[in-house]
Amino acid sequence: MTVATFNQNDFTLQDAATYKAALDGNIAVLAKLAASFAPHEQPTPNLTVAVDGGLKFLSGALSLVAAQSTSAITAPASNPRIDRVVIDRTSGAVSVVTGTEAVSPTAPAIPAGKLPICQVLLQTTSTSITNSMITDERVVTHLVTESSNSVQTLAKSAVPLSFVAVDTAFTGVTYSNGGGKVQFSSSGVHGLTTSPAVGASVYVTWSGGTGLDGFYKVLSVDSTNDLTVDFAYSAGLGTPVVTPAGDYVTMASILVPSGTLGPSGCLDCHTFFDGTSSGNDKTTKFIIGSEYIDSNAFNSGSQPYDWFLVNRGSLTEQLYTLKDTYISGGKAVDFSTDQSIYLEASASVPNEVITLEGYVIRAEY
Questions:
Q1: Can you name the residues that pair with 66 across neighbouring β-strands?
Q2: Which DSSP string do the residues of 19-79 spell out, in sequence order?
Q3: Superkingdom of the source (predicted)?
Q4: 8 Å CB contact between 115 and 143
Q5: Strands 94-97, 50-51: parallel, antiparallel or unpaired by DSSP?
Q6: Is residue 316 within 8 Å of 333, Cβ to Cβ?
Q7: Side-chain half-sphere of 300: how many Cα atoms within 13 Å?
């Protein structure tokens, strides 16, 4: 589009020809800025949002991001919901952040590395998305990467999470109503005792029902084959599997959105574990995406664990240090796409507790 000179319209002073020419010229001046990444309904409305094209400026290069559409958005089941359409700061790809259904819903948080495009208010009866449902919330007209020395905290927690593994014999697990809570039972022993298991959590995966995978606090050890967890009983939860000794459990998952790191960017990870003091190994492990980073075994007391991963002039090649010690070799995590950091732990024998006391994950662009 060619440029024009801005000439403020004023129908009280300008003749018809001048006024019309000023309108055309002023639209030409404003159009590229105003229309950049503009959200709107589709020509034939459906359950997607159209996003106009715009410009991005990355590593000294200016390029055009073509117009695109979101993936199909599903209408809420029980209550209204607000979803957010966001755009990746680096790639320019749009995506949808799904909100939570509620009588008075609120918009979900904007993920790191993304910029807001719009909110979409959905009803249970929504069969298409129209302009009246869309709230424009663009804050920039072009995508520009963050400062080269930008540092952001991706995640941090000081809320302890304790995990206790059951015996490998605790298989074929069934569940029943234990005073309104779920009681797990097996023909095999679980290997837990009231101390230290009560107050810690077991990790449970469910299949074939409505049960949600996750950590469930042990409320009581009822017998050698039964234990009750803090999870409301209901029919149809499915088949549970309680994680046994020797298996790893993901105790935290931290998203590293594409565009968070530059070619010389780095990740700084500080974690603090502790566990039952004994001669038995407890192991912590760190993974980014599908790339193994490192693991560390300890058998007593606390286990601070720090590592530092730096891009080696590329988004797909890294070096890292562990506890300020250089580790030979490198890694090949592709930070041009979304990745997740997994903090994992495993106990070699049942009835020993591992606690993730806290962590801080920082990224520098």
A1: none
A2: HHHHHHHHHHHHHHHHHTT-EE--SS--SS-EE--EEEEETTEEEEEPPEEPPPPPPPSSS
A3: Bacteria
A4: yes
A5: unpaired
A6: yes
A7: 3
| In the block, residue with structure tokens 């129209």 | 130
CA 290 vs. chain centroid, Å, equals: 16
Over the stretch 287-330, which tens digit does the pLDDT of each residue have?
A: 999 999 888 888 877 888 888 899 998 899 998 887 667 676 68
Q: How far apart are the first and last CA of the chain?
A: 34
Taking the domains of the chain in order of start, what are their residue ranges? 1-33, 36-145, 154-160+248-364, 166-242
Taking CA 209 as the corner, what is the angle to CA 206 and CA 214, rounded to the nearest 5 degrees? Answer: 30
Strand, coil or helix: what is 129?
A: coil
**Both tokens of residue 170?**
């605790």
**How far is it, in rounded angstroms, from Cα 334 to Cα 341?**
13
Identify whether the C-beta of residue 147 lies closer than 8 Å to the C-beta of residue 365: yes
Decide: helix, strand or coil at residue 130: coil
Q: What CATH number does domain 154-160+248-364 carry, 1.20.58, 2.60.120, 2.40.10, 2.10.260?
A: 2.60.120
Which sign, positive or negative, has the C-alpha torsion 47, 49, 50, 53?
Answer: negative
Q: Find out whether 36 and 66 touch, Cβ atoms under 8 Å.
A: no
Q: CA 51, CA 123: separation in Å to the nearest integer?
A: 21
Closest CA to 230 of 197, 263, 196: 197
Integer-rounded Cα Rg, in Å, for the chain is 27
Residue 362 DSSP one-character state: E
pLDDT tens-digit map of 151-189: 788 899 999 999 999 999 999 999 999 999 999 999 999
SS3 string of 7-22? CCCCCCCCCHHHHHHH
Name the DSSP letter for residue 330: -
C-beta separation of 80 from 123 below 8 A: yes
Q: What are phi and psi of 37, to 5 degrees?
A: 60, 30
Query: How far is 81 from 346, CA to CA, in rounded Å?
Result: 38
Per-residue pLDDT tens for 31-59? 777 788 999 999 999 999 999 998 887 65
| C-alpha to C-alpha distances, 168 to 106, 197, 215, 241, 249, nearest whole angstrom | 44, 16, 18, 11, 15
